[in-house]
Write a structure and sequence with these properties.
heterodimer; A: 860 residues; mainly alpha; two-stranded antiparallel sheet; 67% helix; globular; B: 289 residues
Chain lengths: 860, 289
């Protein structure tokens, strides 16, 4: 078409523009797809894209859910009639332990992580999370860990000490088989995925949001995931520490929980519930986020009291860390403590009340669309409020004593967990199904599914309250008839199977909708958040160009946004540099600061996770030589991973250093700044690490205060000089490293190599002196809890400084290769907090483990 | 120019004298006059320190007039401090761990933050410019570093809970005064660093609050769960448990409040002048319902 023709026919001109737009768009689409797509075939295992990984997380979680559900059916079958002989005591113990373990560790948390990994970048208007390889690594840890745990069931040696593994029942004396080892090693392995998700979600939400999306323009779901991720960072380390200690006790005979060595079995309960209570809210908060988002869309108005809801969520997250004692009312804690924690537990009713009333107010003042997700939300509201009320009952100490370890607690727990997780999750599933697949689910099957689940659930668990009040204890596989429990148990079992039918209905619906569902409109629910601006199903790169967010409800108030983004008029509408990019923005007001280059498909996560699975399996087989070898291999992969990172040429794509000005929007490449994902990832990882260390200190001081057989003061005089030398050397290493990082970031590379070498030498000498100190202390770590804890502390601090030394050596090599230097000081700044951490932890340990007991005087 | 100035100095002296007169029965009813000579002297020292600061503030408020609210806050807090240090709690503290804990917690999480909120530095500085010596300056610098202040405060708290030093303070009124002084000063630095932190340091301020909340909770938990009394046979275990709970749960509330307040302040700052469309819309179709 010539210009003249175009002038003659403005309509055609317009059509031509549209054509041109379409071509540009599809060209951009092709370019971006080339950069962002997974490898074909088996290469899909190297995928790191958040959409792929999130979906895998969720699907795997559903599979584990079904397995856990089948176990639940077995439990209910056994209890359906009195004196049943379907299962014996041993099988029953294994099955209830595995049911709890699978539902809590292999379904609830991973599915929410998966949902978050899938959804967060789409909601915050980013291309991907900031650490994609960490997503993949987390997924494989979860998958392999889950398979290892499940294999114990197949082998008939599943853990059978309850999902909370109380000592001494789980100790080697009372659980001699490998069951508890499967639990401890497998769960610790799975926890890696939670920690990984915790770090990457926190950093991505704080620093990866689309320009303009200030903190208070974030959808409530994003807030809830931020709260969840932070809670994971503070909540999981106590459990990880406890699992490591218990496994060391079982495998190596170090008496961490053994009264004979001077310990106290309640230590396990404290560490477990320090994790276990926040865990309940780790599960509930994302679900509450889902509910808040769905309610505002389905009530067709913005959420009432947005700020109150956000504040309530943060308050819940915070309070949950101070309440763990209310799980231990019957273990003999001081009565005054029971009274205080009873009151403190009631406090939780305030923020949850805020949430519930905000939801009700939204529904009340909105014009509610009663479609499938809304139905499940109503189910959620009813069940969750009931669960909360029985929670208030259980927080009353006398009542708690009365119903402790009866089926009343089981009923309460299921009301809370199924109410706060399963129902919102299915509501969310139906809500986002059109996004996942581009098709709408069937309203009929979905409604059947809901009513079966809802009625079945209430039959099972409402009656179970009564069973509990009539005195039926938990965890018994057998009861005599005539105790008044017969009909209740039978009905509970019937209800259980009705609910199973409901779940099956939902599954059938989801499975068939992929083929038979009608095509979804662009925004089927008329939703307000960014994920609905995407094509359905969403492409790997999410947005053709990244949005500029002006409001909390972008799709409601910026109606042209979808087209605007799709036509490439937003940020980063360019794939010319053949590398994956997303924006690095400011925490509070999301000003774009830099372009973050992020890694593409990689085999490293899979290899590292496989090697770690090998470590796990060899430990279970007690083949310690092989375990050591596998550990070395795993370390090798992880170090290789750290090498192909940051300023490595493979990461920077076809860009040579210094040409960052070619970037779109004239933003610098994040590597050329002083601030970036690596540094933030390091900081939040160290936060979790510090929590683990504090848990260790807690164990130490707790035993000191509580256990009569524990003496804290060690005869450290023979090792005093070695300890002091070691402390001095780690301070030297840390200080020199810090000054070096400062000098380099100020553009002064003089003496950098010498300084790095000095750091390495000081670090090695520090390790040597610490080793000497261990030798001189003559620790009897197989006999005394105290000595075992001191040894563990030494290993912990030495691992950290050892890691610091290796990383410094790698930095030295990278400096020589020219990856880093005064032009790119960033990596030095990433490593600096690790040295500071090693330093502080070593000094703290000297104070807490040696100086404090000595200063305490008699009785220590 | 000099006349009104002089008259206001007179006014201040008169006023402070009056306040001391009003206040002295409280002070005299207890420690300074009733205990042993040493106790009386130590009590007088505390009273003198407090009174000195009060006078300094009064003189300063003539030179730099504080707002009414801040002045009231300062005076009320000073009164509270006097009652805490010299009042009945001090006597009870000799035999009860819980009373002693309440005294310390009042100093550290009520009096210190309230004083900090009353922002008395302008007045104190104006009145006591001659007192600006280098250790003072180091403290001022530490008061801008939330994490440093939190560490110092933590060290002081744990130090005085070691049985040796705890008993030393209980038995020796001089050391008790030193303990109180250290508690108030380090708590003051901590709260100053936290409550008056710049927005850039907000994450540090939040982190140091969390850290303090955690380690005091820790210490409280240990006191609660301990199966032996730490501070002598004479004190009952139940008393120590109550002390632990006061530290663990009750004293946590001010820290929580501070966390909420700091977050709210940051939110207010960032939402100011950023009132964009539709933060409170009624839905996809703009009808009010």
């Amino acid at each position: 078409m010539t210009d003249r023709q175009a002038q003659a026919n403005p309509d055609q001109q317009g059509a031509a523009d549209v054509d041109q737009d379409q071509r540009d768009k599809s060209q951009l689409h092709l370019d971006l797809t080339r950069v962002w797509s997974n490898l074909p075939g088996l290469g899909g295992l190297a995928a790191v894209n958040h959409g792929t990984i999130g979906m895998r997380f969720m699907l795997t979680g559903v599979v584990f859910f079904l397995i856990g559900g089948v176990l639940a059916m077995l439990l209910r079958s056994q209890l359906a009639i009195p004196e049943n002989t379907l299962l014996n005591a041993d099988q029953y113990s294994q099955i209830f332990t595995m049911h709890g373990t699978i539902m809590m560790f292999l379904f609830a948390i991973p599915v929410l992580e998966g949902l978050a990994i899938y959804m967060i970048p789409k909601m915050i208007g980013a291309r991907d999370l900031l650490f994609p390889r960490i997503s993949a690594f987390g997924y494989y840890c979860y998958l392999f860990g889950g398979i290892i745990i499940l294999s114990s069931l197949a082998l008939g040696v599943a853990p059978d000490a309850g999902w909370f593994m109380y000592t001494p029942l789980s100790s080697i004396e009372f659980s001699p088989g490998p069951g508890s080892d499967f639990w401890l090693l497998g769960i610790t392995f799975v926890e890696i995925s939670a920690m990984a998700a915790g770090v990457e979600l926190t950093v991505s939400i704080l620093r990866g949001r689309a320009p303009g999306m200030t903190l208070f323009r974030m959808p409530v779901f994003v807030w809830s995931i931020l709260a969840m991720a932070l809670m994971i960072l503070f909540g999981f380390p106590p459990l990880i520490l406890a699992s490591i200690l218990l496994e060391l006790e079982r495998a190596a005979g170090m008496p961490f929980f053994d009264v004979a060595g001077g310990s106290d079995p309640l230590l396990w309960q404290h560490l477990f519930w320090l994790f276990g209570h926040p865990e309940v809210y780790i599960i509930f908060l994302p679900a509450a986020g889902v509910v808040s988002m769905l309610i505002q869309v389905l009530a067709r108005r913005s959420l009432a009291g947005y700020h109150w809801v956000v504040m309530g969520m943060m308050l819940i997250a915070f309070l949950s860390f101070g309440l763990w004692v209310h799980h231990m009312f019957t273990v003999g804690i001081p009565k005054v403590a029971a009274a205080f924690f009873s009151i403190a537990s009631m406090l939780v009713a305030i923020p949850t009340g805020i949430l519930v009333f905000a939801w009700l107010a939204t529904l009340w003042s909105g014009r509610v669309v009663f479609r499938l997700p809304m139905l499940w939300l109503c189910g959620f509201l009813v069940i969750f409020v009931c669960g909360g009320l029985t929670g208030v009952m259980l927080a009353l100490v006398p009542f708690n004593w009365q119903v402790h370890d009866t089926h009343f607690v089981v009923a309460h727990m299921h009301y809370v967990l199924v109410g706060s997780l399963f129902f919102p999750l299915v509501a969310g599933l139906y809500y986002w199904l059109p996004l996942f697949s581009g098709r709408m689910p069937s309203e009929v099957l979905g409604r059947f599914g809901f009513w079966l689940s809802f009625v079945g659930f209430n039959i099972t668990f409402l009656l179970m309250h009564l069973t509990g009040l009539l005195g039926m204890p938990r965890r018994v596989f057998f009861y005599e008839s005539g105790l008044g429990w017969d009909w209740l148990n039978l009905l509970s079992s019937v209800g259980g199977f009705v609910m199973a039918a409901g779940v099956a209905m939902v599954l059938v619906d989801v499975a068939t909708h992929v083929r038979f569902g009608r095509k979804s409109p662009a925004n089927p629910w008329n939703a307000d958040t960014l994920e609905w601006a995407l094509d359905k199903p969403p492409p790997a790169y999410n947005f053709i160009s990244l949005p500029d967010v002006e409001t909390r409800h972008p799709l409601w108030l910026q109606p042209q946004l979808s087209e605007h983004l799709a036509s490439g008029k937003g940020y980063l509408a360019d794939a010319g540099r053949s590398r994956r990019e997303t924006l690095w923005t400011d925490t509070l007001d999301a000003r774009p600061l830099a372009v973050a280059q992020i890694p593409g498909n990689s085999w490293l996560p899979l290899c590292a996770a496989l090697a770690m699975a090998a470590v796990c399996i060899t430990l279970l087989l007690q083949a310690y030589t092989w375990a050591a070898l596998a550990t070395l291999v795993a370390l090798g992969y992880l170090l290789r991973w750290s090498w192909v990172n940051g300023a490595h040429p493979a990461m920077t794509g076809n860009m040579s250093a210094g040409s960052a000005s070619e970037n779109s929007d004239e933003l610098p490449l994040q590597l050329d700044t002083r601030d970036g994902p690596g540094r933030w990832g390091m900081l939040f990882t160290l936060v979790a690490d510090a929590t683990l260390y504090i848990s260790l200190v807690f164990a130490w001081i707790y035993l000191w205060a509580v256990s009569p057989g524990f003496t804290a003061s060690t005869v450290f005089a023979p090792a005093a000089s070695a300890l002091m030398t070691s402390a001095l050397l780690v301070v030297v290493a840390g200080a020199v490293y810090r000054s070096l990082a400062r000098r380099i970031s100020h553009g002064n590379a003089q003496g950098a190599v010498a300084r790095l070498v000095l750091v390495i030498i000081a670090g090695l000498l520090h390790l040597g002196a610490a080793g000497l100190a261990i030798y001189q202390l003559e620790l009897q770590y197989l006999q005394f809890t105290r000595d075992a804890l001191v040894l563990f502390m030494f290993v912990y601090v030495m691992c950290h400084s050892g890691l610091g030394i290796v990383a410094t050596a790698l930095q030295l090599r990278r400096l020589q290769l020219g990856f880093v230097g005064t032009h790119r000081p960033y990596e030095f700044l990433v490593l600096q907090p690790l040295w500071m951490f090693s330093m502080v932890v070593f000094l703290c340990s000297l104070v807490v483990f040696f100086a404090l007991p000595a200063a305490w005087g008699t009785g220590a | 120019m000099t006349e009104p100035h002089r008259s206001s100095v007179w006014g201040a002296t008169w006023r402070s004298g009056l306040i001391l007169c009003v206040f002295s029965p409280v002070a005299m009813a207890h420690n300074p006059l009733t205990g042993s000579t040493e106790e009386r002297l130590a009590g007088l020292l505390s009273a003198a320190l407090l009174g000195g600061m009060w006078l300094l503030y009064l003189r300063g408020s003539i030179l730099v007039r504080p707002s009414l609210g801040r002045a009231i806050l300062f005076h009320v807090t000073a009164l509270l401090c006097a009652v805490t240090v010299l009042g009945p709690l001090d006597d009870l503290a000799k035999t009860s761990t819980a009373a002693h804990m309440s005294q310390h917690m009042l100093l550290m999480v009520v009096i210190a933050p309230l004083w900090v909120l009353s922002k008395p530095m302008a007045q104190l500085r104006a009145a006591g410019s001659g007192l600006a010596v280098s250790p003072w300056r180091a403290m001022v610098i530490a008061s801008t570093q939330p994490m440093t202040a939190a560490w110092v405060h933590a060290a002081v708290i744990w130090f005085w809970h070691l049985p040796v030093f705890y008993m030393l303070a209980v038995e020796n009124p001089w050391w008790h005064s030193v303990e109180h002084l250290l508690f108030v000063v380090t708590a003051g630095m901590f709260w100053w660093a936290v409550l008056h932190s710049s927005l850039r340091r907000l994450p540090l301020a939040l982190a140091s609050l969390l850290f303090t909340l955690m380690h005091t909770g820790f210490l409280g938990a240990l006191l609660t769960f301990s199966r032996t009394t730490w501070y002598g046979e004479a004190r009952s275990l139940a008393d120590q448990q109550l002390a632990g709970m006061i530290m663990w749960v009750v004293a946590a509330l001010p820290y929580l409040l501070a966390l909420v307040w700091l977050s709210y302040r940051a939110y207010r700052y960032y939402s100011r002048g950023r009132h964009s469309v539709g933060e409170n819309t009624t839905g996809p179709v703009n009808d009010t319902d």
